[in-house]
Amino acid sequence: MSHKMVVGYDGSNGSNAALEYAAALAKAQGGTVVIAYVLEWSPYSFLTPTELEERHMRRQEELKRAETAVLAPVVESMKSKGVNVTTALKYGHIAETLCAIAEEEGATQIIIGRTGHSELSSRVFGSVVGSLAQAAPVPVTIVP
Q1: Which of 12, 23, 123, 132 could form a Cys-Cys staple with 83, CB 3.0–4.6 A?
Q2: In what order do the strands lie in the sheet with 84-91?
Q3: 81 backbone φψ class: left, alpha, beta (φ>0; ψ -120 to 50)
Q4: H or E stretch covering 75
Q5: DSSP 3-state assignment of 35?
Q6: ∠ CA 76-77-83 to the nearest 5 degrees?
């Protein structure tokens, strides 16, 4: 059976460990890795139309930067190792968005590092890992 795995990736050591784990599984089982980079973005409903337009432009710039600075190098690295990879780059709540990506992609598993760049926010708002473990539509593997 071919597996499609969504890996929550943010460039941290934890996400790199998760990606390496997924890459090894994909190679051993003939699977595909979807490298998912989610930028947190909170909606502000009280902004003026001009402010919303400026914010949208900044959002597009951030997506471009993330694609070229974060995703492109890691995709190239994985492809050079013979791993079948695709990417997903979205804005939103990290855990909710990873769940949505897993459903959209027809993934059989979500793989995430135990820690990432959002350590401070996780102390305030709850961890991404904890949220995924409770809400994911597919099994979640947490890589130390």
Answers
A1: 23
A2: 84-91, 32-39, 4-8, 109-113, 140-143
A3: alpha
A4: helix 72-80
A5: strand
A6: 90
Provide the mean pLDDT of the chain. 85
| Residue 128 confidence class, pLDDT cut points 50, 70, 90 | confident
What is the rounded radius of gyration, in angstroms, for the C-alpha atoms of the chain? 16
Rounded to whole angstroms, the Cα distance separating 38 from 98 reads 8
Domain interval for residue 31: 4-143
Contact in structure between 66 and 41 (CB atoms under 8 Å) = no
> Which 3 state secondary structure label does DSSP give 28?
helix
Q: Tell me what pLDDT residue 47 has.
A: 67
Q: Give the total number of structural domains in the chain.
A: 1
- Is 52 in contact with 43 (CB distance < 8 Å)? no
pTM of the model: 0.83
Phi, psi of 42, deg, nearest 5: -95, 140
What would the pLDDT profile of 88-124 be if each residue is shown by its tens digit?
Answer: 999 888 899 999 999 999 999 999 988 755 554 444 3
Residue 74 is part of a domain; what is its CATH number? 3.40.50.620
DSSP class of residue 140? E
